[in-house]
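Intended use. Records like the one below are meant for learning the mapping from a protein sequence to its folded structure. Do not use them to infer anything beyond what is encoded.
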Amino acid sequence: MTCVVAVVTGHKKVLMGADSLIRGGDDAWSSEPKVWRAGAGRFGIGYCGDFAWGELLRYRVRWPTTTTELPKRLKDCIQNAAARTDFDLKSKKFSGDALVCHAGVIYTIDNALNVLTDPTRDYAAIGTEDIANGVLHATKAWNPKRRVLAALKASAEHSTTVRSPWVLLQV
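Structure written out for the chain above:
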């Protein structure tokens, strides 16, 4: 597991944060960042789950240039990348979720490629989301950076699969 969080900061911006731990069996090491910019810097992407899922999102998806009907476009872009690379989203038993942030909106994508956004919340989390969402909810009055760091630190405190260093990204 991992922890990726996002908080709307205003002015159509989102602050994202993630831990840096990759765990496989008894081994653990730091990874490439689990959050990055894509689509000429217009999108913030974060993932948790299988490394192959992260590689598909980071290196194979051609992020949309048109943002009308964005949830459908995001799903189509991921499906097209999977088809081009023989990453079988249906039969491959992968696990993974993603956060995609654009123009101050946070989209959550699950491994069935359901693209959701919750307009009643200014935050979202994947991975150890129960812990992180609790912290993000309880810290609504705090500034975004403090909220993101508190959610990541709480997740690390209560999970053996979340560790610093923290990677922060404003998009």
